[in-house]
Amino acid sequence: MGISRLVTQPTYPELVGKTALITGANSGIGFQQTLQLLQQGTNCYVIDRQLGNALQTLLDRYPQQLNFYRCDLSQEDQLQQTVTKIKQDLGRETMAFLLNTAGILDGYRPTLETTSQTWDTFMQTDLKSQFLLVNAFLPDMIQNGHGKIVNMASIAGLVAGGGGAVYTAAKHAVIGYTKQLDYDYAAKGISANCLAPGAIDTPMNAADFAGTGAMAKAVAQQTPAKRWGTAKEVALTTLFLLSDGADFIHGVVIPIDGGWIEQ
Known about the structure:
By secondary structure, this protein is α/β, with parallel strands linked by helices. It has one domain (13-262): 3-Layer(aba) Sandwich (Rossmann fold), CATH 3.40.50.720. The chain contains 7 helices and 9 strands. Strands 3-2-1-4-5-6-9 form a 7-stranded parallel beta sheet, sandwiched between helices. The longest helix has 29 residues, at 116-144. The two termini are 33 Å apart.
């Protein structure tokens, strides 16, 4: 994946010098969110289980703006330790933006093929980690009088068929949690919104492109736009939600799905 040069004239000047925390930054949507924010001049604190070549390139290119923390979000102890380290590194700064992007897909397994352990692992990663990170950074946002939270949902949070039993349950819960979060704290300067991607070409969906890519082609044909979306398209929508132009957008779910749920 190519990485663009440094941008000297950001699209959203209000993002310059702000701080953002992004989970799942090693690949896919999280990586693109990180890249786009770095190009806007935002200081990024990123979490992932892995550090791949593309993210390492960003670390080398933006040494003053990017901080990486290795953490498995399914392990609550690791997450709490990582939060402590990030807060130490932040010092007196306040986290302006929280992007809860990380997630794992359950292979479309129905409930009878889902074990209790699998349920807990997916719920911890796709839902509870968002709750824990919000509670870790929300108090400082409230004290600062401003903060924006973007939680990653999915079309699986709106309709059935976008995942299996636990993934669909988790993503529906993300949407409900985000709406309540915004309802409770909007008057304190906080906005919380959801993104609901559909068929996005990311490593998480690599299995659909395996072999002849028959599954990927079928999904494209079932999508009104007749194509898969890109991680960059999701990231650019994220930038808008973080910008001043979105200050009066509260508790919404934005489908980025090529028209999938309009059918």
